[in-house]
Amino acid sequence: GGPAGDCDGAAAGDACGPAGSGPAATQAREQPVLEPVLPAPAEEQNGTDSAKAPKVNCEERNTTGIDRFTLQILNVSQDLMEFLNPNSSDCTLVLFYTPWCRFSASLAPHFNSLPRAFPTLRFLALDASQHSSLSTRFGTVAVPNILLFQGAKPMARFNHTDRTLETLKDFIFNQTGIEAKSDVAVTEEDWEGPLPSVLTKGIDWLLLFSVLFLAGFVMYATVRTESIRWLIPGQEHEHQE
């Protein structure tokens, strides 16, 4: 629905790094495409219709017998590829998040309501800090990050800095042509889960290990430097004087 931009980052101040080690990359904001008010000639009308064609032809799943449409969160032992069928054309919206990122927490209730708005699509979420290999594979340099998959192939990345239910609806409609249910809104249950909307404090073990390693290296280098000074001719004599 807008001009192409940098799909590998997020606007500064609007996203968190997956490992918490630096600022997020720049993310482009999509601009809405304005439709002409006056009737266009036949040739231009055909061009407009082709521009509105869905970019991804999703196979909508059968919802018969499904009473509750909800988001599924992958745990650390589950692989995303196990939930994506490479031989099908069904579509899945996958969210990369971290529980300590406040932008992921603010997005949570809106993303929790999406399965009710699009019951024929599938919605998954995974902790990017626990699935670092997937984050590297799909170029997730900042969270929250949302990818639209067709089968097992990523087709589009959500690039809005305004992450609300309405912008998410517009993104899915622009990509797939599937309209959202108009009566769906964010409820109190969506704030409670399944995706957490409350920040979780945790320890960044990678950062802690890095700090301890650097401290140990500095101490080792200092001790070795003092030892080498005693081996240099003239240094011991100078010290005695």
Automatic annotation (TrEMBL):
Entry's Gene Ontology cellular component terms: cilium
Keywords recorded for this protein, A-Z: Membrane, Transmembrane, Transmembrane helix
Residues of the Thioredoxin domain: 34-177
UniProt biased composition (Low complexity): 1-25
A Pfam family hit: Thioredoxin
Transmembrane segments: 205-223
Region (Disordered): 1-54
UniProt GO BP: cilium assembly
Name the record gives this protein: TXD15 protein
Organism whose genome encodes this protein: Gymnorhina tibicen (Australian magpie)
Lineage, opening ranks: Eukaryota, Metazoa, Chordata, Craniata, Vertebrata
